[in-house]
Amino acid sequence: MTAKSNITGIVLGGGRSRRLGLDQSKLLVHIGGKLVLARVADTLKMVCSELVLVVRPGQEDDVPDLGIALNMHVVSDTSQYEGPIAGIHAGLTASTTPISFVVAGDHPFISKNLVNAMAAAAAADGMKNPSAVIPRSDGILNPLHAIYPREQWLPYLAHAMSEGETSPRRVIEKAVTAEYPPVTIFTEEDIEKSDPRRISLMDINTQENLNEARKIIESRRFTPRNHSIG
Question: What pTM did the predictor assign?
Answer without folding.
Answer: 0.91
